[in-house]
Amino acid sequence: GQNIDQPTEMTATEGAIVQINCTYQTSGFNGLFWYQQHAGEAPTFLSYNVLDGLEEKGRFSSFLSRSKGYSYLLLKELQMKDSASYLCAPQDSNYQLIWGAGTKLIIKP
Amino acid sequence: NAGVTQTPKFRILKIGQSMTLQCAQDMNHNYMYWYRQDPGMGLKLIYYSVGAGITDKGEVPNGYNVSRSTTEDFPLRLELAAPSQTSVYFCASSYSLEGETQYFGPGTRLLVL
Q: Do B43 and A44 touch (CB under 8 A)?
């Protein structure tokens, strides 16, 4: 079966760094997406990894290890507006996105 | 560009009623998707389309129907609404499949009582 595992909730302090982990099992693999979703809003794209390694984009970075079925999203210099859910979504052999339940990130001042 | 638009934003249905959720995109994307999102759960794919006139079932298609007569529009039809269909529905589109970002509409919150 296909399965995504990420922590349900995390808390971090404004200005700090947080790492959100995601492990996955899918039928085939064609890359992994991270999306951000603020409460009551639609998901918006953050990053895409298809090769092993780190992709950096401003304050956000995403890492992928295909052999381990593992990815993480790293958020630096946390701001209050980063309070949101972060969705891990690998793409299977049919190019369908398999969505995790998301990690709710709470930022405290 | 408006991107992906959805109507209505919120709707209350009685059990057994029917309705159509509208979705349109102005990005000339070939691929369009309908998802539902339940509290504490990941997005579930209901139906998707790879182009006008072509639709296919996703993970949870029962109780829903779709059509794609134009590139822009992808309506989702609920027949005989049931409480289990209470959810937030998102429409999304992408230019292609591999490595392409899906752009989401604002969602329709549906309550079936």
A: no
SS3 B84: helix
How far is it, in rounded angstroms, from Cα B40 to Cα A63?
A: 24
Question: Which of A43, A50, A95 comes nearest B104 by C-beta?
Answer: A43
Rg (alpha carbons) of chain A, rounded to whole number: 13
Instruction: List chain A residues with CB under 8 Å of B98.
Output: 30-31, 91, 95
Measured over the CA atoms of residue B38, residue B44, residue B50 and residue B55, the dihedral's sign is negative
Tens-level pLDDT at each residue, chain B (113 residues): 789 999 999 999 999 999 999 999 999 999 999 999 998 888 999 999 999 999 999 999 999 999 999 999 999 999 999 999 999 999 999 998 887 899 999 999 999 99
Q: Which residues of A68-105 are buried (b: 16+ CB within 10 A; e: fewer)?
A: ebebbbebeebeeebbbbbbbbbbeeebbbbbbbbbbb
Minimum CA–CA partner of B38 in chain A: A101
